[in-house]
Design goal:
alpha/beta; 5-stranded antiparallel β-sheet; 5-stranded parallel β-sheet
Length: about 450
Amino acid sequence: MLHLYNTRTKKKEPFIPIHDHHASMYTCGPTVYNYAHIGNLRTYVFEDILRRVLKYNGYKVKHVMNITDVGHLTDDADDGEDKMEKGAQREGKTAWEIAKFYETAFKSDISLLNILEPTIWCRATDHIAEQITFVKKLTEKGHTYTTTDGIYFDTTSIPDYGNISNLQNQTLEPGTRVALGQKKNIHDFALWKFSNTPKNRQMEWIAFGKKGFPGWHIECSAMALKYLGEQFDIHCGGIDHVPVHHTNEIAQTESLTGKKPWVKYWLHGEFLVIDKKKMAKSGENFITLQTLQEKGIDPLAYRYFLLQGNYRKQLNFSFSALKAAQQGLQRLKKTISDIPPDTVKDVSIVKGFLEAINDDLNTPEALAVLWKGLKNNLVTKEVVMKFDKVLGLKLLHQKENTQNLPKQIEALVTQRKQARKEKNWELSDLLRQQIIDQGYVVEDTPNGQQIQIK
């Protein structure tokens, strides 16, 4: 049986879904005001492994991921600029253009990492009505209050606020996490913000008698409720989501529905760190997948690097370790290609792999099982193909010959090659998406572009 570590209960538990043979899953998606860095992408790889393991165990998975294109302020205290507006100012574009560009870039990144797309993509700006309705219902139930700058959730209106992150046992003073301002309580959070500045925002809507925009947390609750119902199986995100974002999601949603628990299993991925510091978009250690490609690293080598670590433990990044992982992946693929045709599979290897992945997604042990089988000639290519449905490393994948591509794809590939030569990354990403939309995948390798059918 599959066992998963549940952040809310602080223990490893058997996975028992709400509905037999079905698994419902919500994962917090990107805030599309900049490129995702490789620390962000670590979380999406872990979530992809989870989804693949669920499928490997025979579950039909409904996976919903949001796109945050409005409402995420520059700090968790409900202060500062909206990240989308700030991104627009940085690049001299509209917030809508910023959102579209970086959403496309994110989807390109997950394609390169062989991450399965969610069953449903949902943008915050496409669900404003649902968020407004959510806030109205919370108000009717007596969980909110209004200040001059917005509508806030009153965390003292519920008895168990913050139980997922043990906030009840923390003593915080104003300024530790928030400047109290007009808030009644330190942990209260914005459900809806009013546009009080003299200049017009690019993303704002009329609600509650004036112009405004949603808070960050409300979007996930509203969209999860719409697509997965009042209770579902799994909610995922980065470990930094626990004390604020996911704590607030739980508070507002369980207050609205009265259903506890709202989500049965909460899973969180740990940080990718450099010199003991977590990667951040505002820091000097902001490394994108494009950065790795420019240094000759195959995106799947980065995926292999991540799978060698436990998703719940911090992973230290270095280019030397990543290059070693690339060599290891190349060696793994070479070993697999040399498997003799008369090899007979060993049942214990298949069982060992299943036990590893079902032990809270233990990919390091799963890889060790695969290597052991290969070294002892106990694994067939058919078994490797089955294992790779979880690992997602394209271990048996053969590249398409680009000379045999349709003419329209060849033309796009040629244009993209020139765009990359000219370092026109925006055009390069747009051309990549056009190629993907026509049923092909683009990989940038040390040997140039490689094109393959999806």
